[in-house]
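note to self — DONT lose this again. spent like an hour looking for the file last time. sequence + predicted structure for the chain T wanted, 246 res
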Amino acid sequence: MTSNQVSACCFTGFRHEGKPVGEVKAIGEIRTYFSYPANNNAPERAVIILSDVFGIFTNSQLLADDFAANGYLAIVPDLFAGDAMDLGDFEAGKIDIPEWISRHGTDATDPIIDAVIRHFRDKLGIKKIAGAGYCFGGKYVTRFLVDGKLDTGYSAHPSFVADGELAAIKKPFSLSAAENDQIFTRDSRYKFEEILGHTGQQYQINLFSGVEHGFSIRADLSRPENKFAKEQAFVQALGWFAHTLI
């Protein structure tokens, strides 16, 4: 594995302040949060946010709104078919992590992402699609960086990415990493860099000091180092998409 399996740090975090401005609609049977750029109901570029284990909740919705404010149609599909986690469940002892993970492998998750991409291409006429993956979703950005799927990808502190998945990418890839991360460790970063160097694709790896796994989407933003890193990771994704979606 280029990054480790999900563990307790993937099931904890902080809810961010703000009121989402988008709406929840359906793509087939897939519950999906949509956020459109202002005064543009038919954008040609889109960002699919492949979420952490908390799925469609305030933090991921606000992130989609931020992408929309920068000109993209941004969506958060429910990767878990109604089985996403709630903040506080882990501390309350309500989660059996291995059992939950067993319900959400590639056989269950890949078809959801495939259906969303087909909807964008065939129904909405989206010409360029970026994937932004966080923790759990980082694996699936990697899996879908192939011809006819995602056109470019960004991941923050990805979980359980296999070496072969990363080696198979055919599109540009950008990564944000935390200094203190038991899932995406220092060795993982070095392995990522080694494999990416053999893919022939453009890549970028940014490391943020003083922060932990999950910093880009569910960190405690009252800590200045978390707030800075979260905001700069978003700027990294924006810059990467502007550079590679041409």
